[in-house]
């Protein structure tokens, strides 16, 4: 039995209130998944015709094993496609997975694929309005893949923005199964992030052309693997490791390397062990405490603001109810230990090289800032295995103690010497509603802005005003009718360069929106995910040009400085959204726009 460390009382208090709040929903979830636990291979209760369909195309040895054997059958759910650089390596995973399963006396089948869109391609274009909803479609697709009830364990292959949350949400409906996620790893370094950001800003100012911008972007995103900045994709990967759903140290290993291939094989072997020995299921791993651990990782690393919705939705899929106050309170007690672009200049390869997840988790665990009494895919209790690093020994993966000190304290620091005493995200609240802000990427002197509002109903309107020279002043840009009910809550990534230019020119600027910013957003103080959204009669719809707004990220306040009498006399703004509800498949998502919940509840169509 691994020694379990004590947990900081402040973290315990937050966790206990989550457990109390979730008592009924968690019990209902566990009752559902326990109903479907099976004794012996799941497929054995199927009728002969059902089973024959399930293995009709298998080779003879697999048919024999599936027909009469007691060995487990592992289902593979993959987000492979050639549009996402991070998912391209998965095209070569299936046969090695099958071979590794066979080495353990088991079979494996491709259970199904899930859609996987690239936000980097769709940013600023109509397809981006399908992005957030693609998460819930992925969850449903995962359920379809596993619904054949042929599987005793499952492997999920996914990396990027909505894909890992969607796979997790779908997989949690099969929480009675042992399930492991296998990463594909980041691409090797390309153009330094500072140079990429500079090229984007110069383009926004009209100082370089499209040819120069494309050359910079191509040098940044240049091969298979995740984009190397610390956006939503790599935050997803951190989350899976700190919650114990990846093998220790497997997250940030580059594709097509001997270690990457060995870790994939080792992942299958470990899933086979916990499936055969009934050691741990996904519902055993994803608990109130492991969800809190995930939030701790999010704050300690300055991770993506998209997880202000994604981790909420994942938690609800497991019957755990969390909100933005929980995230903000955890952020208040978790030190910021990382500076990875956009919170710094380093990429995730540098983070991995100077200590990576092993150093981060050991520091947090030893400081009592992680719950150690949790289960993981490693089968035992506690996170001690996750403070170690993988090494190759005669072609096999072994784990050894990692480095004891960061090799670059400009990128990764210990708990005792953090970049900041608080984590990366804060809740903002006031008379406009509730929103979140990523403070880890905003310098201290930009965290409070009091300025008049300039209202826009699209990011294109703001860009046009910038190009006309109308924004050379202090202001808070209010970009509304961008929420999930309005248009699917697209990321407003194209706002960062012009607002960044204005901030660099000395103006006090900020953003207030019911939309999202990219996981790569930073630099500008941005109150995002404003809830209620404008289309849901949120007060953001009452703001007029010239209204004074106070945004204070330090105190967590966001206030419209207009009297209650004046606001009560105003009529909410209207916006004709018909043009963004059709074309590029958007008409197919009308039922999702009509039923989606609040951003603080995960912006999901599922009623958990």
UniProtKB/TrEMBL annotation:
**Positions annotated to bind [4Fe-4S] cluster:** 160, 227
| Top enzyme class | lyase
Question: What range(s) does the Dihydroxy-acid/6-phosphogluconate dehydratase C-terminal domain occupy?
Answer: 411-603
In which pathway does this enzyme or protein participate?
Carbohydrate metabolism; Entner-Doudoroff pathway
Record keywords, A-Z? 4Fe-4S, Carbohydrate metabolism, Gluconate utilization, Iron, Iron-sulfur, Lyase, Metal-binding
Cofactor mode of binding and number, as noted: Binds 1 [4Fe-4S] cluster.
User: Dihydroxy-acid/6-phosphogluconate dehydratase N-terminal domain location, by residue?
Assistant: 73-380
* Any one GO molecular-function label of the UniProt entry: phosphogluconate dehydratase activity
Q: Which Pfam families match?
A: ILV_EDD_C (PF24877), ILVD_EDD_N (PF00920)
Its UniProt entry gives the catalysed reaction(s) as:
6-phospho-D-gluconate = 2-dehydro-3-deoxy-6-phospho-D-gluconate + H2O
Q: Which InterPro entries match?
A: 6-phosphgluc_deHydtase (IPR004786), Dihydro-acid_dehy_C (IPR042096), DiOHA_6PGluconate_deHydtase_CS (IPR020558), ILV_EDD_C (IPR056740), ILV_EDD_N (IPR000581), IlvD/EDD_N (IPR037237)
Q: What is its EC number?
A: 4.2.1.12
Q: Does the keyword Metal-binding apply?
A: yes
Cofactors required = [4Fe-4S] cluster
Answer yes or no on keyword GTP-binding: no
Its biological function? Catalyzes the dehydration of 6-phospho-D-gluconate to 2-dehydro-3-deoxy-6-phospho-D-gluconate.
Q: Which family does it belong to?
A: Belongs to the IlvD/Edd family.
This protein is called what?
Phosphogluconate dehydratase
- What organism does the UniProt record list as the source? Cellvibrio fibrivorans
Record lineage: Bacteria, Pseudomonadati, Pseudomonadota, Gammaproteobacteria, Cellvibrionales
